[in-house]
Design goal:
single chain, about 400 residues, alpha/beta, Rossmann fold, 3 domains, 5-stranded antiparallel β-sheet, about 40% helix
């Protein structure tokens, strides 16, 4: 698996900015933010809160003795207060992140390199499978510190002419601009053609060849807002829509929610009638088999990268992420239904264990040997890694059997 590395210009800009604007206890802030982001849950819907409140109310009525000398109004108030107190203590309270100038610097030190690694891996999926795709325009929703622009420029820098970066935080747009200028306001941008906006354009008349949203869906406060945003992003997509999130259960669920929104349509304002096709990682457009099971293990992948040069960082980190890519109509090679490796490939003497998601919408466990499957496929399977596609259709596999340890590699 190839190691990713932020461009030297981006690394140098981070060092310049953090030297100019000293952040006290930066290491502690980075560790705290990283832990928070990876444990963050999605915001509860009003309907879910009401259901929880009704369950608690029934529970308290059945199990709690309310003093007989209280009148009906006092009893109702006590029951209401008990329910509210329990909700405050036992319900996850989602809050939007406040991207101040100081917080932006901490976020830059925490997520710039890992976000770049995940986005680069996702974009390379398009680059490798559709080499004729040469985008000229890019829209990045929730652009943050600019990881998407740096990753896309590294792949399609010769063809990309316009980058539309959209982030609701003015301070993050300013910070991203400074990174592009090497940390100095007076310097030229390393990547030309970048423009910043705080609001998502909703008109379908202007489309972008490539639309990306990375680590942004959990910043939206409810399903209605996520649905509107996803529909707008698809409306603005002329070629590919790429969505990337944390490789957690929450991140994967948010992506599968977005997948349903795009595939089922329902947008009242349709200008481009080319159908939505799942380009990657799924080899099918059926329900995700990992969500269908009782365990609901997230479908995620890992990407090694060299982190920013801080004293507390090791030489190699691993970014665990989930992603989904949509294309406007069928695009690329005819082998779209090749199985996808959805876990580590276990090489054993004279056989290989592969866990894949297949075109039938099911998870399969393959035991590949040279004698049974041929030397070419056996050698290919031994070289495959987590996230790769297996260039073959294998009939003798065990559906539903997932035998691998999904622990995150040591960073």
């Amino acid at each position: 698996m190839n190691m990713t590395l932020l461009p030297k210009e981006a690394q140098d800009a981070v060092q310049v900015l953090l030297q100019k604007r000293t952040v006290r206890q930066l290491e502690e802030h980075v560790a705290s933010l990283n832990n928070y982001l990876w444990s963050r849950k999605r915001p509860l819907e009003d309907k879910e809160l009401r259901e929880k409140a009704m369950e608690l109310e029934k529970k308290f009525k059945d199990n709690t003795h309310i003093e007989s000398d209280l009148n009906i109004y006092q009893k109702e108030q006590k029951l209401k207060n008990d329910v509210l107190n329990s909700l405050r203590k036992n319900t996850y309270h989602w809050q939007p992140l406040s991207y101040t100038e100081q917080f932006g610097l901490v976020y830059l030190a925490t997520r710039f390199d890992g976000g770049f690694a995940a986005v680069s891996r996702a974009l390379h999926e398009i680059y490798q499978r559709v080499p004729e795709f040469t985008p000229q325009t890019l829209m990045d929703f929730g652009s943050g510190v600019g990881s998407v622009s740096w990753a896309a420029h590294g792949i399609w820098g010769k063809s990309l002419k316009e980058y539309m970066c959209i982030d609701s935080s003015a301070s993050m747009n300013t910070l991203s601009d400074l990174v592009l200028r090497g940390g100095s306001e007076k310097s030229d941008m390393h990547i030309p053609g970048i423009h910043f906006r705080q609001f998502l354009p909703v008109s379908p008349k202007i489309q972008f060849d490539l639309v990306v949203s990375a680590y942004s869906l959990n910043e939206l406060p409810n399903f209605a807002e996520r649905e509107r945003t996803i529909q707008t992003l698809w409306r603005k997509t002329g070629g590919f829509l790429v969505l990337v999130e944390n490789g957690t259960r929450v991140g994967h669920q948010l992506l599968m929610e977005a997948r349903d929104i795009v595939l089922k349509g329902g947008d009242k304002e349709v200008w481009d009638h080319r159908p939505a096709c799942v380009f990657a990682p799924c080899p099918h457009q059926l329900e995700c088999p990992k969500l269908a099971g009782s365990s609901q293990i997230p479908c995620n992948f890992v990407q090694p990268y060299q982190p920013l040069k801080f004293s507390w960082n090791r030489s190699t980190h691993w970014e665990k992420f989930s992603f989904v890519i949509f294309s406007r109509g069928p695009v690329g090679e005819n082998n779209r239904d090749w199985p996808r490796m959805v876990g580590p490939v276990l090489c054993r003497p004279r056989h290989v264990h592969c866990n894949t998601c297949c075109s039938d919408g099911k998870l399969h466990h393959h035991i590949i040997t040279a004698k049974r499957h041929g030397k070419d496929l056996y050698r290919c399977a031994r070289k495959c890694e987590w996230g790769d596609r297996l260039p073959a259709m294998i009939s003798n596999s065990v559906p539903g059997k997932m035998e691998y340890d999904e622990k995150e590699p040591a960073s």
